[in-house]
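Lecture notes, part 5. Sequence design as translation. It can be helpful to think of inverse folding as translation between two languages: the language of shapes and the language of residues. The source text, in structure tokens, appears below.
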């Protein structure tokens, strides 16, 4: 909550126009993957598997047994995310006073932007670790979406032990750390190609910053970092200082703080993983929400004005919702309804149990 007490030290000592933000809330998965509009009460998409066969035949052979590819309906519940905020009237008045940092002049806007960034950071964390068993519903992340059926047999309502085409590709060492090598990366690349026919052109490989350092160390003299990338469905993206990218076999390595790791006390080497993601078959689906009309006086006009300036976080359309006042407070939250869609798990993969040092 923003009160006069929580901002007074900043107002009394800072005279620059900008605040220096300390939190690392970069969200690469939000920046790089396509966003699509949801249209149903649940997040759903059609899936065509295998089953069609072919054979030779004799000139006078009879029509025998027709076959067809199986068809399934993948479905996930919408995940609801929010970040709450509260600002006192006194704090807003002080922030708007002459002599305060220009960036604090509209304190409510600042709080909304910070809430939006926190919202994006939490979504980015669940991009990997979110589970279908979560309550309330969460994003079903890559750990389950790209699993090979060993840990997660059912993804989006389709059972991998029945429909093998729905299995992802996974290379692990049963929890025991191992050194990263080009051979390991190539092994997973080959699994993906054999399972889906896809090469690594235009792929994204999400990894912890320490993992990316290990990769770069494999060939320090010839590593290549890029500052602009082209993503299918998104077009060219110019990277800011929060992202670092290197290349492997046509794919782009993306460093992300939220990639999970295992904290190993003994030995001291922590282990992490990387995720091979095909952006042609992986996207965010967002269910548009209707801004609430709860509020008094000029609050609705005010929030619409702020929303117009806010627009989105990493091109994610979010909604600013005001709640009824409780005394001299402005209460509200930013929210979004969405789900991660992996249309072809067999076109992605996970490389796990890689020693990355101490995180």
């Amino acid at each position: 909550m923003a009160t006069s007490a929580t901002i007074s030290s900043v107002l009394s000592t800072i005279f620059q126009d900008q605040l220096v933000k300390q939190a690392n809330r970069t969200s690469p998965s939000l920046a790089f993957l396509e966003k699509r509009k949801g249209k149903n009460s649940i997040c759903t998409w059609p899936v065509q598997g295998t089953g069609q066969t072919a054979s030779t035949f004799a000139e006078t052979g009879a029509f025998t047994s027709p076959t067809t590819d199986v068809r399934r309906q993948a479905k996930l519940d919408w995940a609801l995310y929010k970040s709450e905020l509260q600002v006192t009237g006194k704090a807003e008045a002080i922030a708007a006073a002459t002599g305060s940092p220009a960036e604090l002049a509209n304190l409510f806007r600042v709080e909304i932007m910070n809430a939006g960034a926190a919202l994006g950071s939490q979504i980015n964390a669940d991009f990997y670790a979110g589970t279908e068993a979560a309550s309330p519903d969460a994003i079903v992340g890559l750990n389950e979406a790209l699993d090979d059926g060993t840990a997660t047999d059912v993804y989006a309502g389709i059972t991998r032990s029945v429909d093998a085409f729905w299995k992802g590709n996974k290379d692990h060492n049963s929890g025991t750390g191992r050194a990263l090598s080009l051979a390991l990366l190539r092994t997973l690349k080959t699994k993906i190609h054999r399972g889906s026919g896809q090469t690594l052109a235009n792929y994204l490989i999400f990894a912890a910053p320490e993992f990316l350092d290990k990769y770069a160390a494999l060939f320090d003299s010839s590593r290549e970092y890029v500052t602009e990338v082209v993503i299918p469905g998104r077009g060219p993206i110019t990277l800011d200082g929060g992202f670092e990218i290197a290349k492997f076999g046509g794919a782009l390595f993306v460093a992300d703080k939220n990639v999970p790791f295992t904290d190993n006390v003994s030995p001291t080497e922590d282990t992490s993983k990387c995720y091979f993601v095909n952006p042609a078959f992986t996207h965010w689906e967002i269910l548009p929400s209707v801004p609430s009309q709860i509020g008094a006086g000029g609050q609705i006009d005010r929030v619409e004005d702020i929303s117009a300036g806010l627009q989105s976080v990493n091109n994610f359309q979010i909604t600013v919702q005001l709640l009824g006042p409780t005394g001299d407070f402005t209460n509200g939250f930013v929210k979004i309804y969405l789900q991660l869609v992996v249309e072809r798990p067999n076109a992605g993969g996970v490389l796990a149990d890689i020693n990355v040092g101490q995180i």
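The translated text above is only one of many valid answers, since several sequences can fold into similar shapes. The chain has eight helices and 20 strands.
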